[in-house]
Amino acid sequence: MLKKKYFKTKSEVEVTFELRNDDAEKAELVCEANGWEPIDMKRTKDGSFRTRVRLPKDGRFQFRYLVNDNTWIDEEEADSFCMNEFGGRNSILVTKQAN
């Protein structure tokens, strides 16, 4: 699940990434916005994993979730998808605010 929070006075968007996966011991967000370096996601009380990231407005960013260090998961609520160089697909997040 994705939630976007736009600020009137800042040129950035706070994005909450949330992953529900009952088999996961560990989950990370892997995103091109930070050079594909994994970002640890914290387990919430309801068992899902969550992290927040601030990204520039009007951007388009590819990302995926990495679960248990070996399983890639797409975000089904992503704005769109594209094929990656490994034969899979990446989720795409768009930070342009709809009018």
CATH class: Mainly Beta
**Measured distance between first and last alpha carbons:** 22 Å
Number of domains in the coordinates? Answer: 1
Class based on secondary structure composition and strand pairing: mainly beta
Percent strand equals over 45%
- In total, the number of strands is 10
Word description of this protein:
The protein has 99 residues and is mainly beta. It has one domain: Immunoglobulins (Immunoglobulin-like), CATH 2.60.40.10. 0% of the residues lie in helices and 52% in strands. It has no helices and ten strands. The protein has strands at residues 2-6, 12-19, 27-31, 39-40, 42-43, 49-56, 60-67, 71-73, 80-83, 89-94. The strands form two sheets. Strands 3, 4, 7, 8, 9 and 10 form a six-stranded antiparallel β-sheet that branches. β1 and β2 (12-19) form a beta hairpin. It is globular. The two termini are 22 Å apart. The mean pLDDT is 95.
